[in-house]
UniProtKB/TrEMBL annotation:
Transmembrane feature ranges: 6-23, 35-54, 66-85, 92-110, 122-141, 148-167, 179-199
Protein's name according to its UniProt entry: Uncharacterized protein
Keywords, comma-separated and alphabetical: Membrane, Transmembrane, Transmembrane helix
Domain of life: Bacteria
Organism annotation: Symmachiella macrocystis
Amino acid sequence: MERLIEYLSLIAIASTCIPYWRARTAVQRTTLISAWRWGGVGLTVWMVAAAGQILAAETHRGIVQLVWYAAALLMLCPAIAVLGAQRPVTRVWSWFIVLPFLLVFGWPAAATGSQTLANGEFLLQTPMVVGYAFVVVMGLGNYLGTRFTIAAALTAGALLLVVAPTASAEFSWLPETDLCRLLATLILIAAIWWATYVARPTYAVRVPLDRVWIEFRDQFGIVWSKRVLDRLNLMAQGDQLSLRMSLIGVTSVDNSDAPPTTSELAAMERSLRWLLRRFVDEAWIDRQLRLGNDSSA
């Protein structure tokens, strides 16, 4: 029965390539394209690891162990890439942040590679596991409070299920390593399909500018949203506008329900466009405004 589930999980993880490829259209005109590319590499290596888990001979178990670890590292790279998704930093972020992350956390695998290939077991020092968990929380925690909260939490759980069993300290509460990886694959599948489902906006907005903001918040996460939000509200205050931006959209200073004036919305839109130029193209903003106009309540 477990073998059947493994084969089904392999088919299911392969099926996630379809929605993942389609997600490229959502990030095409943004600085998130780098994160998307890292995710594509990570997903591919994950599928190789899942296939190796089923098909590889026992003598190749060491190789499978290392591929699983590589998959866990690469699948975390998109979340790290998002934290540097600002022009012009995004051009060098992969070289100076993401690749060093891979080198630092990949070094134990390189250093003990021959031993792992010989005995079929890969062990990671517990401090490295703790450090990896910290990066998981830091990277995927960026999406807590967005509509991708559940997908981020599931992905975090999947990554930790792959890496935790490799710790030199024994966690007695964990299932056996092979079962952990099977569960991790099933959880990652759920995360990708859930993210695909919630990525389709079904909400109504009060003004089209809300759509621009909510899409930026959910795609780039809370870290960038908070920084842009603070600067946008400072600019609105300097322009003596009665409008402010909150995490859920445009609001008034006095919290009144009166609709904002066209002139004030235009002023806030100009400021938001100026701030978002480091993250997205003008065409992306124009598209969100059109969609927001169609869904405005």
